[in-house]
Design a protein that fits this description.
It is built from 7 helices and no strands. With 159 residues, it is mainly α. The chain has a domain at 1-88.
Length: 159
């Protein structure tokens, strides 16, 4: 990595971590768990919001190249550790009476979105821009499951 790419990499990290810190503290001030604000900060400066509202700012900040690849790798590694840490917080003793409910929730949580997606693609095939690979789908499903469990365990939503 040359000095320019290294500078770009650290700028990307500073923006991402700064947004997570600011929104995490704001979330805490509003009486919510800081993880909710941190996730919201990531969504705000990511492709989901900044990339759609101001694509030129997003592409200038997160321009493709070695720095963006390094940042993406670091983000994926961070998500892996985040899911790993969330898994450690699961108390299996509390699940004894809730196994049936957990199975129903898990099965319906997979079947309903998959069915809605399937029928949406059948009804509106022009909306699909690119193919979704199995590993991307599994990654996104794992992300959603982990984040919803974390938010629920943090007390932000009723269980």
């Amino acid at each position: 990595m040359n000095p320019s790419e290294l500078c770009s990499f650290f700028l990307q990290l500073a923006v991402l971590l700064g947004a997570a810190l600011v929104f995490g503290r704001l979330s805490r001030l509003l009486g919510m768990p800081s993880v909710i604000g941190e996730i919201a900060g990531g969504i705000l400066v990511g492709k989901t919001l900044l990339g759609r509202i101001s694509p030129e700012t997003f592409s200038r900040l997160f321009s493709p190249g070695i720095a963006a690849t390094s940042t993406d790798t670091l983000i994926r590694l961070g998500m892996l550790f985040f899911m790993f840490a969330a898994g450690f917080e699961i108390n299996l003793g509390q699940m004894k009476g809730k196994i049936r409910s957990a199975v129903y929730t898990g099965v319906l949580g997979l079947i309903i979105p998959m069915a809605l997606g399937f029928f949406t693609v059948l009804a509106l095939p022009d909306l699909i821009v690119s193919a979704l690979t199995c590993d991307k789908a599994a990654y996104e499903a794992g992300e959603v499951a982990t984040l919803s469990a974390t938010v629920r365990n943090a007390g932000a939503t009723p269980s």
